[in-house]
Specification:
- Four copies of one chain form a homotetramer.
- By secondary structure, the first copy, chain A, is α+β, with helices and mostly antiparallel strands.
- Chain A folds into three domains: 9-96, Acyl-CoA dehydrogenase/oxidase, N-terminal domain (Butyryl-Coa Dehydrogenase, subunit A, domain 1); 129-236, Butyryl-CoA Dehydrogenase, subunit A, domain 2 (Beta Barrel); 243-389, Butyryl-CoA Dehydrogenase, subunit A, domain 3 (Up-down Bundle), CATH 1.20.140.10.
- Chain A is built from twelve helices and twelve strands.
- Chain A has helices at residues 9-26, 42-55, 73-84, 89-93, 99-109, 112-123, 242-278, 290-318, 324-349, 351-354, 360-370, 377-389, and strands at 35-36, 39-40, 129-132, 150-154, 157-168, 175-182, 191-197, 203-208, 220-231, 235-236, 280-281, 284-285.
- In chain A, strands 3, 4, 5, 6, 7, 8, 9 and 10 form an eight-stranded mixed sheet that branches.
- In chain A, a hairpin with an 8-residue loop joins strand 6 (175-182) and strand 7.
- The radius of gyration of chain A is 21 Å and the shape is globular.
- Chain A starts with 8 loop residues before the first helix and ends with a helix.
- In chain A, 63% of the residues are buried.
- Chain B binds chain C through residues 289-291, 294, and chain C through 289-291, 294.
Amino acid sequence: MELNFAPPAEVSELAHLVSDFIRTKVVPYEKDARWTSHGPTDELRVELNELARQAGVFAPHAPKEYGGRAIGQVARAFVFEAAGYSMLGPAAIHCAAPDEGNIHLLAHVARPDQREHFLKPLAEGRQRSCFLMTEPGGGAGSDPGMLQTTARLDGNEWVINGRKWLITGADGAGFAIIMAKNEGGAHDGHATLFLADLPDPAIRIERALDTIDSSFTGGHAEIEIKDLRLPSDAVLGEVGKGFRYAQVRLAPARLSHCMRWLGSAVRAQEIATGYARSRKAFGKTLGEHEGVSFMLADNHMDIHQARLSILHTAWLLDKGERASTESSMSKVVCSEAIARVADRSMQILGGLGMTRDTVVERIFRDTRAFRIYDGPSEVHRWALGARIVSGKL
Amino acid sequence: MELNFAPPAEVSELAHLVSDFIRTKVVPYEKDARWTSHGPTDELRVELNELARQAGVFAPHAPKEYGGRAIGQVARAFVFEAAGYSMLGPAAIHCAAPDEGNIHLLAHVARPDQREHFLKPLAEGRQRSCFLMTEPGGGAGSDPGMLQTTARLDGNEWVINGRKWLITGADGAGFAIIMAKNEGGAHDGHATLFLADLPDPAIRIERALDTIDSSFTGGHAEIEIKDLRLPSDAVLGEVGKGFRYAQVRLAPARLSHCMRWLGSAVRAQEIATGYARSRKAFGKTLGEHEGVSFMLADNHMDIHQARLSILHTAWLLDKGERASTESSMSKVVCSEAIARVADRSMQILGGLGMTRDTVVERIFRDTRAFRIYDGPSEVHRWALGARIVSGKL
Amino acid sequence: MELNFAPPAEVSELAHLVSDFIRTKVVPYEKDARWTSHGPTDELRVELNELARQAGVFAPHAPKEYGGRAIGQVARAFVFEAAGYSMLGPAAIHCAAPDEGNIHLLAHVARPDQREHFLKPLAEGRQRSCFLMTEPGGGAGSDPGMLQTTARLDGNEWVINGRKWLITGADGAGFAIIMAKNEGGAHDGHATLFLADLPDPAIRIERALDTIDSSFTGGHAEIEIKDLRLPSDAVLGEVGKGFRYAQVRLAPARLSHCMRWLGSAVRAQEIATGYARSRKAFGKTLGEHEGVSFMLADNHMDIHQARLSILHTAWLLDKGERASTESSMSKVVCSEAIARVADRSMQILGGLGMTRDTVVERIFRDTRAFRIYDGPSEVHRWALGARIVSGKL
Amino acid sequence: MELNFAPPAEVSELAHLVSDFIRTKVVPYEKDARWTSHGPTDELRVELNELARQAGVFAPHAPKEYGGRAIGQVARAFVFEAAGYSMLGPAAIHCAAPDEGNIHLLAHVARPDQREHFLKPLAEGRQRSCFLMTEPGGGAGSDPGMLQTTARLDGNEWVINGRKWLITGADGAGFAIIMAKNEGGAHDGHATLFLADLPDPAIRIERALDTIDSSFTGGHAEIEIKDLRLPSDAVLGEVGKGFRYAQVRLAPARLSHCMRWLGSAVRAQEIATGYARSRKAFGKTLGEHEGVSFMLADNHMDIHQARLSILHTAWLLDKGERASTESSMSKVVCSEAIARVADRSMQILGGLGMTRDTVVERIFRDTRAFRIYDGPSEVHRWALGARIVSGKL
């Protein structure tokens, strides 16, 4: 079989469909006041979801049994990039984090009854979800080993206590996947995942965090879990295998971040290019100044290289490989390339770039956060370097 | 005379006084709700100004006749950096843009009656001011030659029409300095500066711009000037010399930007260092990871080099030189170094860095804008390169 | 057809064969004194060619009629990278510049008699060739439009005059392809390619240039062409189409540069990694210092991304596309990534890296030159930027 | 005392004198065949030294008792930069490494008899010297603690054994300063410095290393010390204080590297600027292309910032401070800035830049090595980062 970089026709068609939808239906909503500093409201999201359903582009990655097309990673690369052209696009077609990753995780690990209760309404877009891993105050972050939230069996019930933060989409979510460390029992000290319906008085959203980014429905919350009691079968997968499942979720989840934000880089470049063509300074258009056209050229190369990186990793994942090194590299390469594109685009726009009159300002802020999400670049470089030095790579 | 990099004792003392004031009195206000996304409110500013007066650190750069100390550029370098440690600091001691630059301009160019009417209350902090140069829609920006706002004499009155935007501090200002292009007359096509009291129904603030930065009192506005009528003596300086005066204002104004934001870089580094000392990951503190300590080292070098650049330009200005090349270089060197410091500091803070729980998030956004303010880096590189190629440098 | 990044089995096999050959047979020659500062001598090259023939890896890109395998661009990507592992490798398997590009050009454009006389011995490795385009003193370079060498018809003969320099492989070449500008005639001012046997007293090699790189057989020469007389049928292709043919040659030629030097980046990384594993400083191995392991990680990512870029462009070329934008991007991306890899590898080696005790020192120097060869990065950014701004991209 | 960045008149005058000398007398020697790949020959050096004496610019940093002017660090900053304009300049006025550092060390530590025997002829330029610290094969390098060369007392004599490499100027030197680790005795395990006349059959220069740089007289050697016997008073300073003296030497020695190579950056910029003014491509001069003029602007800023860094550290040293943090920062800032200048200058020169037709090619190679000399950037970042994290900075 020969090398091939071109997607199958049905993938191209779907991507074009999504692209048309985003440009004609979603972009006009970008000035909607319901896009707040804590992301689009659920009201706005539901309205966009309905448009996506009408356009036949809703949740193409969802399992077929729930109305999706169960498209693979390579197809997602094209489709999610198209969706990311608007930062409201992923919420609109329901491929945003953390739902997209949670669908993936549940589809792989959940029991039939859990699929029916949690996955089905999530995949169908009738509710949102959240993933409670990160902790404040020196707890779990890039190093999940520092997990402080605890779960202990009390008779037939799990009792969970801890604090979580930077929990994307918690406000308004229908359920939570909670990571906690077993206290006592056969799996003492190991991590386990739990499923819990929301709202629950034992899971208190203390505050919405003010963050640099603003595109996730529900924003990011700080949460106190106090004596949360869950039935013994609330465990997702097996007890003590929480870290393993987090890994199952992680590689594709960080890759789909790359896909979506690549779309926003394409958008930023389009806006910057349009401006460079029309705005004049010192006797010619900005685009006729090499100082500007070189930035556009670098943007083009960064976008191209990021896309190649994504496609390669997606191809490995579709072949069934873990691709943890490659998804890690893609995360670094893409988050840094995309951030450079956003930065250069803002710079080309000059004073206009500082304002929210174009979406570049939001793209810049969101993509800055992307260099921290799912492991800052430094954690990936550290892991990658260690693999090289130890001869594993 | 030997080389010397150490400030005179009285400058050190003043800088320490300011530093103490900022750390003890101003920093506690950083969580105040009156610090909005359009900057601190005037109410907050007035409260801080009063504290500054009590501490003896109010407006040390103001002319002595108005209660200031008339400190020079080198002294400002030390004092304004100390003020910039909190992004509320410059507003607190009244050395923020655009007032600081306007005081400088008026002190150099205004007639005695204009000094009394405009400069005195400004220097004493009883009112704020704004500088109306930048225009939307292809008008004046980095290239002031594209000025579209017009001024024509109609009998004894000037009639001014045009649009302005990105006008910092307009909302709440007591007067405006307006740049317009003469239409007709001996100076047809040349730029002139005008002084106008605010509010004035002919100077309509159409909207507050949503911008990436958030530390200027009054935010940034878009303004329509419609048939503004000013008396013939409303001209600041001479008719037709607007660009020349803008230059008088510009070199020190962009240098004082460097000074203030250098203080914010120092702050970001302090916060990042503190976090690196305490936060653990993978078995040791972040600071014990070279991936982090190298960033702290780079921050330290960037701060040091930015400071040297400022001091050198300030020294030239104090000697009476125009130093336009050096202030231009300082603007590029400092804005880029400071932005790197802010970026690395945010990266070191990880998830915390994305949130407004520390001021680094605001510092990051403000210093991003600094790379665009007062001429984007590209305009300075272009001008500098042209001077080199033409043999002027 | 699905996406695919894996080469066909026969390509993998050939690449492995070449890789084994390079590591076992060619690497030992890297200390041979016949590798001079002007490249390997012809004696050394001939000796290596013979070993390559014995190993069955000689000139796999040559047309089948001349004993080659006529492998396409994707196959070359794998094979040439394997050859580039030693900087003597391309000369050894006869895929070095300029011969590789000249074979490609002649195979596409030459008449049957020209193929027999020039291409056959070249493809079979019985002689070398050179391409006389670049000129000193303000003539043709990145801008071929500045061509100063002239060709005019004098009866049945072309008379060519001019100066060329940076002519790789001229010393010892069996023939030259000469680009000259028509003077008079129907194609006045247009460029034409000519074929000329070497040596010829009218083509005088004035000097071997001392250059930063040292891996091309025959080095780089400065040449005077004085009243060179060639028969009217010495034209390669059609009169006046010189620039077009240069383009035919250029896209694949610059891509094969990327392939070969990518191999040298792999080599540098291997050497640096080995050193980082064993060399100790400050109580642990260099590789245990993140300051070093991060550099290895960046090298790994740069190599990976360069390879993806090459494969993508090669795939387009194999599909019959011109891919001039993509080959241009690959040239920038690869030359800069590879230079970074070489630079970091040298830095990791410390004092050892400064010496010729490892080949990294030569790799560093050669790959520095690569950022200039075949159009400096700036020319590519300029062209790419112009295409974006004009809407062609 | 006010800040001041301008040198005293006598320093300016001396710097101008040196500058004139370099431009008129030394530059013409840059094409001399006696400038080999292992640096200028001693014959060439002696010829240049004589010219320097005639011009009154020989060794101004030497102690006054030996004919020098004993100029301080700030004065050196101006004078050595002027000397560095030609890479033969430091050898010409005798301020090159390692002699300049050795003069400094001996002037501070040597006994009167040692001054007479070693320092006097060195300071007067009648002989050269070398400093034997760095070791091959895992010995002393950036981490001097890994010192393997041993010194043990055998009766009245020291017996020294070990291997050294990268020993600059060893070939042709009149004496060596040797660092060795005490074996036995009161200072067992501590380092001591020894003075030894050269040549000595027990100090065998095994080979001249082929290195990327080429400006040090005598090149860099690998040396075997086998049963070298020295009288007990051959110790420089006190037994066991070798590391401390190395530090005395190091801070100013690395700063003078910055000074000299800053001169070479100025030279590279001058050559690149001249080329950019005259060479045309695509219808205008290179300098009219922003892609080039921006590089010239960045060079200008890098040179300016490097100079400020040097002056600041020099000022501290002249005040009697150790300035180890500042000299370390200057080393990183300057070596990286200067390397960027050399790199950009080469890039601007295009094909010409690759050749030795201008000195930029040599400057590029030498300044690449500078990023490794006297501690690679990474060692300085590591030390600086550790000081920040531990609160010492």
